[in-house]
């Protein structure tokens, strides 16, 4: 009922009511309660990495907001609220690190919990002009380092506290008076962003109503304390493009690009020397553990360039009229190309 119209419902031929899962708190609680009985098995973290369905009122921007999307969701189970907050902090840290590895600067923002429930929640938002979320923040939150902290309880608590020092909310939580009171005019930023992740702590909201308890040390039944943690994996594909494109050209960060580098030889029916060279370089890069694509399709070189502008592989090795026996044109998307030998190319790619 809380989910309302956004929960997509169906009836089968028997008239039985069913639904397409918009999220999985209830299902996972059921999996947990049927298999875990004792505090000794805690903490637990269960995942459901799968397609989710929501009957969105306004699906838009392709895969950015759609009715069928891929989510990484995890659910934590702890004995006490104190332990559950530790699980929450670990996930908070893991999310910052994960987005960082995807080449994104994500900002944790205090958020509403909506139909999921609970009172502690953060959205992870990345800045992008095309974003759907309005953001109001103290710009100093962008400077909070994440590398200084360790994956250890006290350190993680310190990190959470460091982030909470700075005002950062999306429009649902925004209040102009608070903003002015907490943030000096010079430090105020108002901009747009994309929500790529969202974490929740909701205590015993689901465990109590679904009678999901474990035996605690003193033998008493205790409702487990839960949190849930979601990353919009399919949305991230669009979000990375929005955050990383240059001059209308897509550019994947190395960590997510389907290939690290593409070799583009000019292919000529009467002269196979560029293609032969390309094959040699291809083998050499492969042997060095570099993930390389060789474009050996027979087509006009300018078509190839256009195609690769769309594919967004971050580096190109172009073998054409400019290259010599051991110098090749090496180019990073939207930067000037340079003539380099293979050793130097490998050095750059390895960095
Ligand atoms: C957390 C995990 C949840 O559902 N339950 C399990 C909690 N959170 S959430 O914020 O509602 O969704 C998690 C992330 O999924 C992405 N997302 C979407 N992506 C594409 N299209 C949609 N319609 C859509 N709705 C949510 C977001 O990245 C969100 O942070």
Characterization of this structure:
The chain is α+β, with helices and mostly antiparallel strands and 351 residues long. Helices cover 29% and strands 28% of the residues. It has nine helices and 17 strands. The strands form four sheets. Strands 3, 4, 5, 6, 7, 8, 9 and 12 form an eight-stranded antiparallel beta sheet that branches. A five-stranded mixed beta sheet has the order 14-13-15-16-17, sandwiched between helices. The protein has a two-stranded antiparallel ribbon with strand order 1-2. β15 and β16 form a beta hairpin. α2 crosses α3.
Low confidence ranges: none
What does the overall shape look like?
A: elongated
**What is the β-strand count?**
17
Using the CA coordinates, give the radius of gyration: 25 Å
């Amino acid at each position: 009922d809380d989910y309302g119209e956004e929960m997509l419902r169906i009836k089968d031929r028997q008239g039985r009511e069913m639904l397409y899962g918009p999220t999985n708190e209830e299902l996972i609680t059921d999996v947990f309660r049927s298999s875990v009985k004792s505090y000794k098995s805690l903490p637990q973290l269960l995942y459901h990495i799968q397609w989710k369905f929501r009957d969105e009122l306004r699906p838009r921007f392709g895969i950015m907001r759609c009715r069928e999307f891929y989510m990484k969701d995890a659910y934590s189970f702890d004995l006490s609220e104190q332990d559950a907050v530790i699980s929450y902090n670990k996930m908070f840290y893991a999310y910052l690190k994960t987005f960082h590895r995807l080449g994104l600067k994500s900002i944790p923002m205090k958020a509403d919990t909506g139909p999921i429930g609970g009172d502690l929640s953060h959205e992870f938002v990345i800045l992008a002009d095309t974003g759907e979320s309005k953001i109001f923040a103290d710009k100093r939150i962008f400077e909070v380092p994440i590398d200084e902290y360790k994956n250890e309880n006290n350190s993680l608590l310190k990190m959470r506290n460091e982030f909470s020092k700075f005002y950062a909310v999306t429009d649902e939580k925004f209040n102009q008076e608070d903003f002015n009171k907490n943030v000096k005019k010079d430090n105020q930023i108002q901009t747009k962003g994309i929500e790529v992740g969202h974490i929740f702590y909701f205590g015993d909201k689901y465990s109590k109503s679904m009678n999901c308890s474990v035996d605690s040390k003193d033998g008493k039944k205790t409702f487990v304390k839960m949190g849930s943690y979601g990353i919009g994996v399919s949305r991230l594909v669009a979000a990375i493009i929005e955050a990383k494109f240059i001059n209308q050209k897509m550019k994947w960060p190395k960590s997510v690009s389907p290939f690290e580098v593409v070799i583009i030889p000019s292919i000529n029916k009467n002269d196979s020397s560029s293609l032969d060279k390309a094959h040699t370089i291809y083998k050499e890069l492969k042997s060095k553990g570099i993930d390389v694509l060789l474009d050996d399709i027979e087509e006009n070189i300018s078509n190839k360039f256009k195609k690769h502008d769309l594919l967004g592989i971050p580096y190109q090795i172009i073998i054409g009229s400019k290259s010599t026996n051991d110098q090749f044109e090496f180019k990073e998307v939207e930067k000037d190309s340079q003539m380099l030998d293979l050793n130097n190319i490998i050095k750059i790619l390895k960095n």
